Amino acid sequence: MENNLLLIDFGSTYTKLTAIDLINEEIIGTAKDITTVESDILEGYEKALSKLKEKIGCIDFGSHLACSSAAGGLKMIAIGLVPELTAEASKRAALGAGARVIKTYSFELSKREIEEIDSMKLDMILLSGGTDGGNKKCILHNAKLLSQIKNKIPIVVAGNKSALDEIEEILFNYPQVVFTENVMPKLNLINVEPVREEIRKLFFERIIEAKGINKTKSFIENIILPTPAAVLEAAKILAMGSENEEGLGSIIIVDIGGATTDIHSIGKGDPTLDSVNLKGLEEPFAKRTVEGDLGMRYSALSLYEAADKKDIKKYLSGVEVLKECEFRHNTIDFVPLSEHDFKVDEGLAKLATHYSMNRHVGRIETLYTPIGMVMNQIGKDTLEFDYMIGTGGVIVHSKNPESILSAGIFSESEPDILKPKNPKFIIDNHYILSAMGLLAQKYPTSALRMMKKYLKNI
Fold it and tell me: Which residues share a beta bridge with 67?
């Protein structure tokens, strides 16, 4: 085993470094500086490295591993047939690969939609549609229109296998097309792993070069993962354990940022209530959702618009909420200093937690039929999940992070929403989750032990 590793996260705002002593399974030191992707990404890295050396001195690192969400991360669109089926399955696969899904399209694309896609600054397109042996017309129509776009964005095809030969002919002259297994081979059965793998490969091969991060190849072995995928990998190893170390069990991670709130859940999510039937798409064991309208700064106004007035009053009583949200939207680098500012930020964080959890977890739908009442579960049941883990600046710097996470647990006022009832709360107060996801790619047991050591129980 190597002695020391340097784990690097080229973030959208900051480049963050975490130095690891592998022998003792300890964090030697951390540092960060502004990400400089617009000029030379190494500038921000070098500044952060200088700060780290001031703290810990000069150390030889056996490996340098990195993840990245710089320049907006991995920006994609997902195209499917039916919104609730292949379009949703494609979106889940892209999110699980660490992508930022800008938009989801369904049915046959229009020329107007193609013009919209052509104008987007995308890194990748995921094209799906139809179960194996099912509808071919829609995906073939969409492939023909995509072949005409001016910006030749890489396309990952994950649709009806019966249409693949014809799609290959249609996209024969397209610069970069990758074919993989159908994301939904049978009705309501999703097959996300092959798609995720192809998305990540393309991320390595093309996206890193496009972002200018390939300049780091002289000292970094590889940009292993998009940052959100690194967090999901950390969540998986923490929940499931490794060959030599037991995991914690089912977990949910609440990651609140300035623009989005990300939720990761690791666990089956099968019904825990009696006489409940599963309905709709199969839920992935490792699930990630991203709420682009629920954030603390850039998305503060959309958070205000998404929230119900009674919830705003519940979490932000006595506050001019619209005024505060407008200010934060216009001042994305705002750092709270006064007690009032912290109170407002915590209230907004509770709203973000409440609504992002409501969207992530499943719900019970009650139907009354001639033979009696029927209860269907749509989505993931997290009622009995063991842990909720909070990360992101507003949670880490809060005097009462438990109150923020509590906004995401089960409530008798919303009995149909299957949020955790009695989870234990943990805080990522050292911001180590993405770093541990990287470490887990080479040393899963060490990553797991270090998370157990450094994540704070509250």
Answer: 9, 225
Token pair for 387: 């842990």
Helix 339-360 × helix 321-330 angle, to 10°: 90
User: Residue 62 is which amino acid?
Assistant: G
Torsion region of 57: left, alpha or beta (phi above 0 gives left; psi -120 to 50 gives alpha) = left
The CATH number for 1-71+211-220, chosen from 2.60.120.200, 3.30.420.40, 2.30.29.30, 1.10.10.10, is 3.30.420.40
Q: Which residues contact 157 (CB under 8 A, 6 or more apart)?
A: 127, 128, 143, 164, 167, 171, 177, 178, 179, 180
Q: What is the pLDDT of residues 174-206, one digit of tens each?
A: 988 999 999 989 988 888 888 888 887 777 666
Write down the CATH superfamily of domain 74-206: Response regulator (3.40.50.2300)
Quick one: which of 286, 278, 263 has its CA closest to 192?
286
Q: Which residue has the higher pLDDT, 272 or 74?
A: 272
Is residue 143 exposed (0-12), middle (13-18) or buried (19+ Cβ within 10 Å)?
buried
CA distance 202 to 235: 23
